[in-house]
Amino acid sequence: MSEEDERANLAQRLSRAYSGAVHDVLRGMGVTDTVLPKDIVPLDDTLTLAGPVFTLRGRPTPGADAHQTLLAWTDFLGRAPPGHVVVCEGNDQTRALMGELSAETLQKRGVLGYLTDGGCRDCAFIRRIRFPVFARFRTPRDITGAWAPEAYEVPILIGGVAIATGDYLIADGDGAVIIPGAIAADVVAETERVMGQEDLVRKAILSGVAPQEAYLKYGKF
To answer: What predicted TM-score, i.e. pTM, was given to this entire model?
Structure first.
């Protein structure tokens, strides 16, 4: 299996998990500082975003030429690799760092979704095309002449959580969790095992077993 196929397989398996289970597995492995800020929320909490991370960092550029900022943004749209999740450290709490045309472009290019510590606009359209976007807030204010990407595939920091290209992300209605790339395969495998144990506990309780008895039998709740 090629490296690309391995990433795709791991992303697909991760997409069948949920953020709480992944968090619990990481905690059990002694890995902390993996949960992104609670105010980064999905436009559509019925969608799960999971896959390998491609990092983007940008910042405000007061007085910048509008044409130059859009050149930089469209360059980013062409760089974002298929089969990845874009995670953007925007360093900006006033502007939308994702919108309808950009979301549709990324989706058509095979990008799995987008998460930012900034804002989003055109949210109804993005929900209609079912492209997973997680953001801090919504605003009609865009980046033209005011914000631009500055680096790709570099270490970034969001809410004290260190993120690198090659890490994995799972984000759903409960929140977003970063999985260090070096242990991603082990984390996904253990999460699958844990979810299987949870299913056994659930079946036992639904069949009439006392909750504590089920917990003691399977060691999971």
So the answer is: 0.92
